[in-house]
TrEMBL record:
Name of this chain's protein: Phosphonate transport system substrate-binding protein
Gene source species: Sulfuritortus calidifontis
Source taxon at top rank: Bacteria
Pfam family, one: Phosphonate-bd
Amino acid sequence: MYQLSVCPHDTAKHMVEWFQFNTYLQRQLDCPIHFEPIDSFILEQTAVLSGGYQLCYANPLSACTYIQELDFIPIVKPIGLYDETLLVARKSAGIPEQRPLTIATASGELITHTLGLSLLEGLKIPQAECEFKVVDSHMRSIHSVLKEQAALAFVFNDTWHNLSESTRAQLDILAETRDQIAFHCFLIAPELTERKEEIQSLLVAMKEDPKGRHILESLGLQGFEPISEDAMDTLKTLMAYYQALYNSE
């Protein structure tokens, strides 16, 4: 039996749909696949690193970690979907002069946080003058700002676009990345190397199959496409940047 892990941000939005995805995958691959969602980014990554998983849909930095630590193989990524970060504050509050500056962040290990640090650099706000309030979800970062528990928050672009209009109306975007260099991706464990082309072809072909296309649409995805070498080089560069940031702390 294989085990599938999915990034908690995605299961939080589409729990039922990911179970449907797992059922589709089992039928197409003709093998049992166990899927049990984990609602914490840190717990999910810890579980995968502990072993026993063969299939993963991961955020960019988790993907890089699995590649580096477990020799996982990235095979496809969502078409036209990239991870970006917004820096937000309460409506009309701006950036306070008081230091340290409290910033809510879903986790220091996520791409949202790493890209967020690049926004601070662009605004000439030294990281040393910031105090990061680490929470376990992107929505809790937003709630921290709305409840005045933090002055600013790093927000995942997908989370922002799925907020209600009334919630967005209470916030201002102070800065945002538009790099299109980071993305979620689907990876397989080394033990599935012999089935790499089969699994990759299956995922890419989902958009052509009526049942597969319905599941993709319910997940908010256009489809999957193979990952190019250039895209992987970008992910590796991002991982190196991430490691340099945290080694300097």
